[in-house]
Write a structure and sequence with these properties.
CATH superfamily of the largest domain: Alkaline Phosphatase, subunit A
Binding site for substrate: 450
Number of strands: 15
Pfam families: Sulfatase (PF00884)
Number of domains: 2
CATH architecture of the largest domain: 3-Layer(aba) Sandwich
GO cellular component, one term: plasma membrane
Largest sheet: 9 strands, mixed
Number of helices: 21
CATH class of the largest domain: Alpha Beta
Strand content: 5-15%
Main location: membrane
Shape: globular
Subcellular location: Cell membrane
Radius of gyration: 28 Å
């Protein structure tokens, strides 16, 4: 057995504590450097105007870094504090070294990768990521190594730096008395005791911290705006602390009757605005969900910007003959949140519904409610069957048929990453709609305008490149929709169909007003009637969860149902937009935005006068903030309590 020399043994015994602290300190330095990278890479999205705010974020981030470092290095800690002489074995020390380097290299890679991914999600990645993409080919993500090559290079640099600094932690000092057995075991047992105490304190956020154990929500204490919270956090911590699915807590801000009065969720549409109720009774419904279809891409919705043309010439043209909601918002930031929001009025609140403990709840949905009205239904998604969990969830909410890449059957048109190119798949969708019995409700979810933002080789140079790689993809999918409608026009069902075009989520581009906590959720919602019966531009505040009650109203659905959204055609309803990011709520009503966490409002902004959210009006308009807070609390109470009770449907009389 290879044993280190007596001189080396004394060195190891004497410096175990010092070296362990030094090495963990190296990792803490690396985490701080990664936070600096996060700041410079995403500076345009963070809205950090003061150096004090940056210092506060870095200071707050240290405790999250310490917790993450101690969590991930538990094996290293355990092996390093054992009070036995076999710890002096050279092989044992080598195992400790490589365990340290491998564990922390993985953490560096994860953390750096999430710096780039933040630009798509506006939050740190949580454990739900693995469920969200559980059916995807992991090799698809290898493309990101090249697409984000600057971050890849920085990850390599930081790993090399860590390894270099690790080698410099060896000490040459020694003391004779450490050779004595009683001194050796006594000092090492004492060291182990203190190491355990301080490690537990660090894991939980501080020995004297009354908020133990530290959670993601604590990061909000160090920021002024929701999108800044991700800079306080680190991804290893976020993954660890969300490993268990979150459970909603019952809420009692108001009585149930009072909450329902403030923000009604029990809908009875036949009593609403009669001139529009049932106007489209018996019509087919096609809901087109466009991947990353941000409001920013549509020139027709940005006419106030001189010289801005956008990237959607077909949508610009179609919107002139459609009913367009110009003030619309997504309820989530990832694709798996879109279908629950649009089809069932269940928004993203804390955790994606389809990944939550409540995903098995009995639900209202557009296809399920219309089934009783004689509708057949189909869901189309060009990805591999099972991708994003859309196949099982579409079945759960009542879609009769599912058409994916398997049913499409031609892998030569696969984009190599996510699914069938939008152009051929939407044309396929149109042909399949010919086979459905009318009336039908169908939905098609596009895939091409997704990272890595490729388009077919024969289309290269056809669409404006813009400042971001995805802009050409937006142009391509816009053209694919043009082709879809041209194909659909030839079918008998076309004139008898109501089309809804909506995004799954937004994504920040280049315009500053779309990089704020509210602007990052802005999307188009467009209703198109080929018969020309519904044309106009409506500034009513709209959100994805309003689509279901609005469609049901137009179709004349008379039975009561539960909906967290409101009928957009009814001006008497409380029209709001609610978003949740990392347990920070934001709600918009009229022109006002409130930011809410820990049961209180911490921000109030006028989105008309201050679209970039630079002036917090909370201290100047407390009465308005209290009124908005009341409505948001009623919404949250109804949401939490109904999901907990599985009370999302109304039993048939």
């Amino acid at each position: 057995m290879n044993i280190v020399s007596g001189h080396q043994r004394k060195t190891i015994q004497q410096t175990t504590a010092v070296r362990l602290v030094e090495r963990l300190g190296i990792v803490l330095l690396i985490y701080t450097l990664m936070r600096l990278v996060f700041f410079f890479y995403n500076k345009d999205l963070l809205q950090l105007d003061e150096s004090f705010s940056i210092f506060k974020i870095f200071w707050g981030g240290i405790q999250f870094d310490i917790s993450a470092i101690l969590y991930t290095n538990i094996p290293v800690l355990f092996l390093s504090i054992l009070p036995f002489r076999f710890r002096d074995n050279a092989l044992y020390q080598k195992v400790c070294k490589w365990l340290f380097l491998v564990i922390n290299s993985i953490c560096i890679i994860i953390n750096i990768a999430d710096i780039g991914y933040y630009r798509f999600t506006f939050r740190r990645t949580t454990s739900s990521f693995f469920s969200e993409f559980s059916n995807e080919n992991p090799l698809n993500f290898m493309r990101m190594i090249w697409d984000f090559r600057l971050l890849t290079f920085l990850a390599v640099v930081l790993i090399v730096l860590m390894a270099f600094l690790y080698k410099r932690t060896l000490s040459t000092k020694e003391k004779y008395w450490v050779r004595k057995p009683y001194a050796y075991y006594g000092t090492n047992i004492l060291w182990m005791f203190f190491a355990v105490i301080f490690s537990v304190g660090g894991l939980r956020g501080g020995i004297l911290n009354t908020d133990r154990p530290i959670t993601l929500i604590k990061a909000s204490e160090y920021v002024e705006k929701p999108q800044q919270r991700a800079m306080v956090l680190n991804t290893p911590f976020s993954l660890i602390r969300t490993a268990k699915k979150s459970v909603l807590q019952p809420i009692s801000y108001f009585s149930e009757k009072e909450a329902e009065k403030i923000y009604p969720v029990v809908q009875q549409l036949s009593k609403d605005r009669q001139e529009l109720f049932g106007k489209y009774k018996g019509r087919n419904v096609v809901i087109l969900i466009w991947e990353s279809f941000a409001r920013e891409w549509v020139g027709n919705l940005n006419t106030d910007i001189p010289g801005y043309k956008g990237y959607t010439p077909f949508i610009d043209s179609l919107s002139n003959f459609s009913y367009v909601y110009t003030n619309a918002y997504a309820n989530g930031q990832i694709s798996i949140d879109a279908i629950p929001s649009i089809m069932t009025t269940i928004p993203h609140v804390g955790t994606s519904f389809v990944l939550s403990n409540y995903s098995g709840n009995k639900l209202n949905s557009i296809p399920q409610l219309l089934k009783s009205e004689g509708y057949t239904s189909a869901f189309f998604h060009g990805a591999e069957n099972g991708s994003m969990g859309f196949l099982p969830f579409s079945c759960q909410i009542g879609f009769d048929r599912y058409y994916g890449a398997t049913e499409f059957g031609d892998n030569s048109l696969y984009d190599g990453h996510w699914g069938i190119w939008d152009m051929p798949f939407l044309e396929y969708t149109s042909r399949q709609l010919d086979t459905l019995q009318q009336p039908f409700v169908a939905s098609a979810f596009t895939v091409t305008s997704h990272h890595p933002y490729n388009i077919p080789a024969e289309c290269k140079g056809k669409y404006p490149e813009g400042e971001l790689p995805m802009m050409k993809c937006i142009g391509y999918t816009d053209d694919a929709l043009r082709n879809f409608f041209n194909t659909a026009k030839q079918s008998s069902w076309y004139e008898n169909t109501l089309f809804i075009i909506v995004a799954d989520h937004s994504i920040p581009g280049v315009l500053p007003q779309y990089k704020t906590s509210a602007g990052a959720y802005r999307i188009p919602i467009i209703i198109f009637d080929p018969q020309g019966g519904l044309i106009g531009r409506d500034s009513t505040l709209a959100q994805q969860i309003d689509i279901m009650p609005t469609v049901l109203n137009l179709l004349g659905y008379e039975k009561p149902f539960i909906s967290f959204g409101q009928d957009l055609m009814n001006p008497d309803k409380p029209h709001i937009a609610v978003m949740n990011r990392d347990d920070n709520f934001q709600m918009i009503r009229n022109d006002s935005l409130i930011l809410f966490r820990n049961d209180k409002v911490y921000g109030l902004y006028d989105l008309t006068a201050d679209p970039e959210q630079k002036n917090n009006l909370l201290d100047l308009q407390k009465d308005k903030a209290e009124s908005l807070e009341k409505m948001l609390k009623a919404f949250i109470q109804s949401y939490n309590n109904r999901l907990i009770r599985n009370d999302l449907t109304i039993a048939e009389q």
